[in-house]
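Researcher: Structure for this, please.
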Amino acid sequence: MKSLFILLFSLCTTVSFAQYFQQDVAYNIRVKLDDQKMLLTGTEEIVYTNNSPDTLEFIYFHLWPNAYKNRTTALAKQLIRMKETSLHFAAEEDKGYIDSLAFQLNGKLCSWEYDAEHIDIAKIFLEDPLPPKGQVTISTPFRVKIPNGNISRLGHVGESFQITQWYPKPAVYD
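Model: Predicted structure, token format:
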């Protein structure tokens, strides 16, 4: 009985590990901080390798600084549910965002759009489907208005900067 259990356990773990994959993303980011205007200005180039068994026609990107843009973001709604009103009543200069995006695939401008419901998510349309083990180079300039650090994790309080989740990054695909 003991050897049957070990055999079944071994088979189950082998099957589950065989299905596991993780996309590979190699980043090259150049960024400058303007600590007077509370801005990050930069460019990003990533080499995205599709390690999934699927052929991809688009890739979702997180644009986390847009969570600080207005009262309708998921972050703003979550803070209100927690009875935290710092973003809800924040002055415009205390809010944050990411803009100046111009996504390119292998050096050519591409089609992309913000998610209809979540402005902190973008959908990048691949000109050619990306097969398993295929690679694409995705690049974009970007600018981040750093929000007031009293709202959440990304921000500044005086001359102290808490810079987290600040660059465009592909969403996990699984």
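Researcher: Any notable elements?
Model: The longest strand covers residues 24-34. Residues 4-15 have pLDDT under 50 and may be disordered.
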